[in-house]
Amino acid sequence: MKLVKLIANLGYGSRKDVAMMFREGRITDADGEVLYADDKVAHEHIRIDDEPLDPPTGLVLMMNKPLGATCSRKDQGRVVYDLLPPRYRVRDPALSTVGRLDRDTSGLLLFTDDGGLLHRIISPRAQVAKVYEATLANDLRGDEGAVFASGTLMLESEKEPLEPATLEVLEPRRARLTLTEGRYHQVRRMFAAVGNHVETLARVSVGALTLGDLASGQWRALDQDDVAKIFAPPRD
After folding, report:
1. Could you say which of 73, 102, 107, 154 would form a disulfide bridge with 202 (CB–CB 3.0 to 4.6 Å)?
2. Of 187, 77, 207, whose CA–CA distance to 135 is shortest?
3. Do the Cβ atoms of 91 and 11 come closer than 8 Å?
């Protein structure tokens, strides 16, 4: 791929903008030598204003999504893309969220521009485990774990029962729930179905991938080992 197209696809500007960056000498190699649009240089050796070029197509990010941000590009309020470099919003192919967390849910959110990987993660066949921690308005009554694990729970307006889910009681009003599907507001609707209300909700892991020490609102790129963890069983 021509350097102008490569850099434009990463969101640094239009092809015209990138051509101007070349003329201004802003694009160099790792040794500081000015590059030209027809040069052939490995991606990892390209610098713009002395900064490494953003990762190529196949990018996977993990964010600790804060409360109040929506998984949208166009919402009038705060959106998760506001927490990323502006050019990430216009990369081509697009950087998309892998599933969604609603405005009132925090925690582990994935992004990728790899459509095949995105669909592999969200496909019910993959059985990728998503682990949530919820605080509840009322004490757990004791039978919720059996109801969620039964594979027979029907949510309002749904035509198919939920896949079995695992409930771990942490405190009388706090629980950890592991799902392998991602229906609309699923955790909140599951607890509503057993007569409770979710007050706070956070996704703490996807497969064996956890947030670690990633602070709220922060993000980082994942390497191949991190991506492999997505498809591994959750850690105890």
Report:
1. 107
2. 187
3. yes
Residue 207 near residue 127 (C-beta atoms within 8 A): no
What is the separation, in whole angstroms, between the first and last Cα of the chain?
Answer: 44
Q: Is 102 marked active-site?
A: yes
User: In angstroms, what is the C-alpha Rg of the chain?
Assistant: 21
Taking the C-alpha atoms of residue 175 and residue 168, their distance in angstroms, rounded to an integer, is: 6
**pLDDT tens track for 152-204:** 999 988 999 999 999 999 999 999 999 999 899 999 999 999 999 999 999 99
Classify 104 as helix, strand or coil.
coil
Selected catalytic residue, list 39, 75, 102, 104:
102
Alpha-carbon separation of residue 85 from 80, 81, 105, 129, 181 (angstroms) = 11, 8, 22, 29, 30
Q: What single string gives the DSSP state of each residue in 152-182?
A: ----TT-SSPPPP-EEEEEETTEEEEEES--
Per the listing, tokens 């197209």 go with 5
At 190, give phi and psi (nearest 5°). Answer: -65, -45
pLDDT, position 76: 79
Q: How far is CA 181 from CA 92, 94, 155, 170, in A?
A: 28, 24, 13, 22
Question: 75 pLDDT exceeds 80?
Answer: no
